[in-house]
């Protein structure tokens, strides 16, 4: 069948190759997984089951159940954010749909969208599908992969129309302080950039609480914030996310959403209400466990001589392996049966690094880091 | 969170963690971890370190029972004194004073059902303070010590994902 140019030219994800290599073996310890190893809190799962038993299998409102949108708006007060649940919240099928809708609602053909890299792999293709052009803004290991005004200026982002900001960051685990965000916010105001802020890892920070760029002066009206239930509540497979933003942006996104998705799946919306009502303690326990693993992993990589900065969020460490990260990851998989993802898969600035996910049990993390240490010593 | 609490949280999950790994996980140095463990033991916060065992999977395993015990107290004898007498039996694995219909909930570990019932009828029931016992043999254990008893690893996530 003849395919569209758009589909034909869309590149295969760099993750795919490592997925296939890892799947080909059955003795692999994988530190390559981008989702929690926990299951969704039981109370949330029973709410989903209960909703099915009661026959709640219809569509919901396009924007998502009102009871859920109210709770989402309440929940975000902890990040000093205030959104009207009726006009400024849209529930989506995963945060991925929210990102896609934001691009389609905010990007005109030929618009330039600045994306800091290394970062999550979907923004580039999403921008291209919306007809925009991606402008890469490399972040630097020297800045612990925070985005700086200097990097934005050096990359020519002043000419961009939109900035995609992903902190806490996948793959680096980097977070940004209020002060660092203030600098980026000033740049966006000065150069009139709008922002899509993917904050899916907001609940997973260690030490300092998450800070959203939308809370910087003059930024709320030019920012769409994306979040969801996948990472905080370990609900990846339930596919439920949301967007928060000015009413006109949410309204535009909802107009696209009503034709392409109609409404986010109903069952997970019931689970999400329960998650927001009753599962804070489980989230705290998960965060504490991630934090213990984070410290262990970072200290083990530094001990074996792979320099690793202290990541402030998400569940990734980003050690420096030096040189060809793809070759390192392939040889490590071959020699020791440990899967990690080469940093270069996540774009410019990722080369020479590895994305190490610590969303796996302490026992496996110890075994995997022992094997990596032995691999590094032999290399 | 203070150092002792952080160390306690790690030990409560896995008492076999070595000091260096606890140090790495908590961000404390090894000496501070060792001090915290000493303090937790000295204050009797930590009384011991035991494996969580699924006795059903051990050949010649053990049988557990939960025994409800009602007692009658007098001026000279309080719960503390009765508890002390019951706790001295090695077969008593755990002993709690509880609210509700009975006074003590006792977990008893024995070689077999006969062993446990002999212990209750010959040692516990005849105690002058004990007025009634009800023995519940544990048929199957699904979760203990916060750990779900099931077979191995059911991680069905994709091995590599973005």
UniProtKB/TrEMBL annotation, chain A:
GO molecular function: pyridoxal phosphate binding; transaminase activity
Cofactors demanded by this protein: pyridoxal 5'-phosphate
GO biological process: amino acid metabolic process
Residues in Aminotransferase class I/classII large domain copies: 27-372
Keyword presence, Signal: no
Enzymatic class: transferase
Family classification: Belongs to the class-I pyridoxal-phosphate-dependent aminotransferase family.
Protein name: Aminotransferase
UniProtKB/TrEMBL annotation, chain B:
Listed InterPro entries: Dimeric_a/b-barrel, HTH-Siroheme_Decarb, Tscrpt_reg_AsnC-like, Tscrpt_reg_AsnC/Lrp_C, WH-like_DNA-bd_sf, WH_DNA-bd_sf
Domain Transcription regulator AsnC/Lrp ligand binding: 69-141
Name of the featured protein: AsnC family transcriptional regulator
